[in-house]
Structures are given as structure tokens and as C-alpha cells.
Amino acid sequence: MDLGRVGVWWSASWRADDGSTNVAAELEDLGYGALWSSGGFEPGLTERFERLLSATTQMTVASGIVSIWASSPDEIARAVADLDAQYPGRFVLGLGASHAPIVENYSRPYSHMVGYLDVLDAAGPVVGKDRRVLAALGPRMLELARDRAAGAHPYFVPVEHTARARTILGEGPLLAPEVTVVLDRDPTTARELARTFTAGYLTLPNYANNLRSLGFGDDDLAGGGSDRLVDAVVAWGDVDAVATRIREHHAAGADHVCVQVLPAGDSFPLTAYRELAFALLDA
Predict the structure, then answer these.
(1) pLDDT in tens, 84-96
(2) Is 42 strand, coil or helix?
(3) Cα dist. 152→146, 187, 231, 258 in Å?
């Protein structure tokens, strides 16, 4: 699975009717290796994945992630097979167990994931081990990603988690963390924008507990995150500062880093991705 060194997180808010498919084509031309986007909570695969595939020619499009509670594995296998028939080898299925506060009847997520993978194994190679990744934070899910998938796609993690994840995965499996970015050199305004992102995620137990395991306390998790926590999970500053953080993830063991730029407004932050491309894609 070749995703290149750096990819782009594609928010579900960027619609096809606002010219965003042209943006996808430019991101490919800039040299980004993959586009990642959430599968949401609708059954099957959202049409967004097909639109991104049709707007590009070679780059990978990956789900980050499809919730294992939203659709049956048989339904997902059929949807992936349909995409693969049109765009052979270009879609990667990212799966995740999501979070208890946003899933009804959230019970035994690890066992549910194991059973989900069992059904996918029986569905054939298009959704086989080499064509899927798992959203993994803790040791058990990282081990499952190592043994039953091509690797792991951790989200909302600092560099320290990337290093720990690589130790658990060992050499070989893909490690593709998401890294959130704010291109702003002013600490006050950069952290203010960053907290519009961190505040919601810190209410989700899986993310909060993962950060606790890395040494962050309750005071760090409160109020959208302490400065120390925000600085750890959001790369802010100028292009050089952000590029340094991305390189730190690579040095810690990441094969591919999925960059999510937080826009200051409602438009897709294409200018930021253009600026970052020159610093990141030759790294």
C-alpha cells in the first residue's frame, strides 16, 4: 500500500457542488499521496469517496474512518467492490470502533471489530488484510491492526503516540497518523482556533483516555485543552514549524502523515496546502 509520505484530510463539509472536486485534482497535482475522509454514520459508503476518486487519476482515497456500527461488513464489502470495479486498487478501507457517546448500544467494541474483520476476510481480497487499516489508539487495537490489517490510522495523537504505536506495530505495518495544523504564528490566535477542534474530541473517552496514557492529566483535558496539550496534538506556527512537526512524526515511525489544516473561515484551505506542499513533499 503506497500512500506517499504525506496526505490530506478531506472534511465532509467540502461538497462537490462548491468546486471541491477541482481542489482534489490540484492536491494530486501538488504531490499529495492520499485523500482521507470520514465515512460518517450513513449506511454503506458515502458518495464523497466516488467523487474524490473520479476527480483524481492516481492518488489513493481512504476512509478515515467507516464506523463498524453504521453498516454491516457485507454491505461495506459490496460498496468497496463497486468502487474497486471503477477505480481498481485506489480505495483503502479505514475502519474504526468510534465512541460510546455517539453510538447507540456501544458494547464490546474490540470483539465487534474482530467479528467484522472475520466477515470481511470471507468477502474476498478487495476488503482483505492488505486493503484495510484500523483506527487504533490503544495497544490491543494496534496489535489487531498489525495482525488483521495493513496497519493503523491513529487520529488526534501527539508524536509520542506515533513512537509508541510503531513499537507495538513493529516494522512493516503501515502507520498513518492524522496531524491537525493551524498556519498561524501567533500563539493566542493559533491556540484559539485549535481549541475549536480539540474541545469536542476531548469529550470522547477513547481520545481522552489515550492522552491520559501519555501523561496528560485532567487539568490538561479541561477547557478545550491546556496549552501543553493543544501544542502536542495541533501543529501550529509558520510553514517551517509545521513541517518540523510532520518530520517528527516520520522520525517517530510514521510511514504516512495525513494533514488536516484547520481553516480560519468556511472555505477549503487550499492556499495553506499549496504552501505546505513545497515544504512537506520534498522532506
Answers:
(1) 999 999 999 999 9
(2) coil
(3) 7, 31, 23, 12
Q: How far apart are CA 194 and CA 223, in angstroms?
A: 12
pLDDT of 194: 98
Contact 182, 234 (CB under 8 A): yes
Which cell is 222 given?
479541561
Give me the helices (H) in the chain, please.
20-30, 47-55, 73-86, 109-123, 139-148, 159-169, 187-201, 205-213, 218-221, 227-233, 239-252, 270-280
What is the CA angle 264-60-38, rounded to 5?
Answer: 50
Instruction: Give me the residue spans of the domains in the chain.
Output: 6-178+255-280
In the block, cell 494533514 appears at 259
Q: Which residue has the cell 509520542?
A: 160
All cell numbers assigned to 153: 490510522
Whole-angstrom distance, CA of residue 44 vs CA of residue 47 = 9
CATH code matching the domain that covers 6-178+255-280, chosen among 3.30.565.10, 3.20.20.30, 3.30.429.10, 3.40.50.1100: 3.20.20.30
String of b and e for 88-119 (b: at least 16 CB within 10 Å)?
A: eebbbbbbbbbbeeebeeeeebeeebeebbee
- Chain segment 160-175, per-residue pLDDT in tens: 999 999 999 999 999 9
What is the 8-class DSSP label of residue 17? Answer: G
Q: Tell me phi and psi for residue 51, to 5 degrees.
A: -65, -40
